[in-house]
Amino acid sequence: MIVKTQYVTFDVEVSLQSGAKFGPVTLAYETYGQLNEAHSNGILLLHALSGDAHAAGKHSPTDSKSGWWDEAIGPGKTFDTDKYFVICSNVIGGCQGSTGPASINPHTERRYGLTFPVITVADMVNAQRLLLDHLGIEKLLTVVGGSMGGMQAIQWAAAFPNRVRSAIVLASTARVSAQSIALNEVARQAIYADPNWNKGDYYDNDRPNSGLALARMIGHITYLSEASMRAKFGRRLQQREHYGYDFATEFRVENYLKHQGDTFTKRFDANTFLYITKAIDYFDLSYGHPSLAHAFEAVTAKMLVVSYSSDWLYPPAESKELVRALLHNGIDTTYVEIKSDYGHDAFLLEVDRLAELTHDFLARVQHDGQPHHPTHLVMGRHKEKATS
Amino acid sequence: MIVKTQYVTFDVEVSLQSGAKFGPVTLAYETYGQLNEAHSNGILLLHALSGDAHAAGKHSPTDSKSGWWDEAIGPGKTFDTDKYFVICSNVIGGCQGSTGPASINPHTERRYGLTFPVITVADMVNAQRLLLDHLGIEKLLTVVGGSMGGMQAIQWAAAFPNRVRSAIVLASTARVSAQSIALNEVARQAIYADPNWNKGDYYDNDRPNSGLALARMIGHITYLSEASMRAKFGRRLQQREHYGYDFATEFRVENYLKHQGDTFTKRFDANTFLYITKAIDYFDLSYGHPSLAHAFEAVTAKMLVVSYSSDWLYPPAESKELVRALLHNGIDTTYVEIKSDYGHDAFLLEVDRLAELTHDFLARVQHDGQPHHPTHLVMGRHKEKATS
C-alpha cells in the first residue's frame, strides 16, 4: 500500500485549554480506504508520544519500513480498509508535519521554540475536529489509540459525544499517575540539562541530541516489562564473552537502549518531546470536575477499554478506574485485560487479540439500530471474546 | 548516641575481581556497642548505593540527622547495641572516607578519577575482610544489608563460609536484572552527558552536578512504588491551585525529585556513582558457575531472606530465585515476603517487622549448639514469624 501524507492548514485562532488563542494550525494526515456514501465508516487513529500521521503502508516502494501500525491497518486487517475509511493525523505540537514548536511562526517568520503555547490532549482533539470537518465526517464510527492515543480517545468520547459512535482505549489512563509524571519530568530534565538545548532555541545550531536520547532511553525502559527485558536481553553481553571491567557499553540491554536513543534523535524534535510529555502529564479527565465519573456524564459512545497485564506505565488498575467511572454513568463499556509479557508495548504487538476484540466490538457498534444491549463488562484475563 | 567515624589504611595490594592489583586501601568505619570477650557478637552492616559508614547515632549533639539506619541500631533496637558489636564501613569505591575515585592516588599525588579500577561487590567484601582482621573478629554473628548491601551479604556467605554464622539479605537479588542494568546505564549516561564530567576529571573545576542530580532522580523513582507515590504526591500541585500551562516544576512529585537530586549532589561524588552502579550491574553470583545453585555450594551460614511486595527494583521473584538456589544446597534458609506499599525503600522503613524477624533469627543462630534444625522455609505474605 503506497500512501501519501497530506496537509491541511486551518487559518483560524483556536482556543486552547490554557485560555490562549493560537493559529494558524496545519495538520499532517494520512487516510487509508474509502469514505462511504453515508460518511459513516470513518475511523480516527490516535498516535502515542512518538507517533505520527504515517500509520500504515509505505511512502514509496523502496521504503524499508511501513507505518507505525501497519500490522493492524489494511485490507482484511484489524482496521479493514476494504470496509473502513481510516484517518491518522499528527498531533498539534508534533514534529512530523503538524504545527509544533519547530514550525515557523508566520507572524514572526521564526521558529516557535518555547514561544509555542503549552498544549493539552484536549487541544489535540480540538484540532482533529477541524480535520473531521474538512473531511466531511459528521460522526466517526470509532476513535482508537493506545497510550497517549488512548487519552485522546477518552477525550473524544467525553468532549464530543455527538461525533463518535464508539471509542477504543488501549493501554491508557484517564488520569496520569505521579510515577508517570516523575518519569516524564526526569526525561524533560535530561533535555533541559543538554547545553545545546539553549532554552529551546537550537534550530540554527547543534541539536540537544544527547538530552533527547537520554529522554528516549528512560521512556523505552517504561515501554518494556521486566519479563520482556529478561527474555530479550537478560544479562547477555554484547560482543564480549566476559566482563570487561570498564565503562564500555557491554550488556546487550545497554546497547539496545543507546541505539533506541540515538535513532530517535534522527526523527524527533526535543521541544516536541517537552510539549507532548507535558500534555500527557496534564491529562486528568477529572480536572475541574468533582469526580472522574462526573467527567463522563455526556458520553454516549460505546467504549472498549483494553489493558495489558505487564504494562507498568499505565497498568490495568488505571484502566479499571476508567471503566468504573464509565459504568457509573451507565455507559456501554467492554473491558478486557490481555495477559501479555510485552509491557506497555503490548498494545502495538498483541495485534491478533486486538483484532478479535475490535471485530466483535465494531460489529456491535454498527448494529446499534438493534434493541439496546444491557451495559456489560468483561473483566479478567484470558477472555476470548469481549462481547456477550 | 555520639559516634566517631574511624579510618584504617591497609598498606597492601589487594587482588580485584578484574585481575588488577590495587592498594593501599583506606576504609572508613563506625562501631556501635562492645565486642564481647569471645569476639562472637560482631554484626557487619552493609550499606546500599548511597550509604556510608555512618549508620547510627550522631557525630555531634548538634547534628540535625542521625545515621542512615538509626531506627534499627541502638540499645534495645533491632540490632541491639547492648548485646551486639555492630560495625559499618563505607565500601571501597565510595566517597565517604573509604578509598574511591575522588581519593588521592599516593603514587601520583593526583585524584584517581577514572584511573580508579572498576570494582565489584566481591571486591567490597574482600576489603571488609581486612577490616574484620583488623578488629580481631574471626567469625561474625551475622552480616546484614539491603539492596546492594544484600548483595554484599550474599557474597559474604558464598565466599567466606568460615567467617559468617549467618546472613540477612533484604530487598536484594543474586543476579541483577536487565531492567536494573538499563536504569543504571541511563543514570550513568546522564553523568557522562554533563559537560562538567569531563571524563571523570573534574575535581579542580565545577562538578557534574546536573548529571548526578538526574541520575539520582532516576534512582529515586525506582526506590518508591507506584502506590507510595500516589499516596505521597498523587497529582497534587506545588504552590498552585491550577495548571500553569508552562514548564515550571508544578507537580509535587516533580518538586520532590528535584530536591532529592539537588541534595544528593552536596554529599555524593559522580564518579563514585558510576563505579558503584557498575559494581551492582556486574553482580551475578552465577557468573563463572554452571548455575546459581552451584555458586552457593560452600555456604554454611543460616540465611534470612526478606523481600517486599511492592519492590519493583529487586522484586520478590528475585529473592525467591535466590532462596531456591540456597535450598537446592540444603542451606538453612528462612524467607519472608513483607507486604508493604513502600517499594524498595521498605527495607529501611519497615523496621518493626524486620525487628521481629531478626530477633527470632539471631536467637536461632546463637543456639546452634542445639540439634540441627531441619531446613525450613516460610514463604508467603503476612507471616508473623519467620521461624518455626
Describe it.
Two copies of one chain form a homodimer. In chain A, the strands form four sheets. Chain A has an eight-stranded mixed sheet, sandwiched between helices. In chain A, strands 2-3 form a two-stranded antiparallel sheet. In chain A, strands 6-7 form a two-stranded parallel sheet. The two termini of chain A are 35 Å apart. Chain A is built from eleven helices and 14 strands. In chain A, helix 3 packs antiparallel against helix 4 (209-223), helix 3 (178-192) runs antiparallel to helix 7 and helix 4 (209-223) crosses helix 6 (252-265). The first copy, chain A, is globular. Helix content of chain A is 33%, strand content 15%. Chain A has helices at 121-135, 148-159, 178-192, 209-223, 226-232, 252-265, 270-282, 292-295, 316-328, 346-349, 351-366; strands spanning 6-10, 14-15, 21-22, 25-32, 42-46, 73-74, 79-80, 85-89, 104-105, 110-111, 142-146, 166-170, 302-308, 333-338. With 388 residues, chain A is α/β, with parallel strands linked by helices. In chain A, strand 9 (104-105) and strand 10 form a beta hairpin. The interface between A and B is large, with 57 and 57 residues.
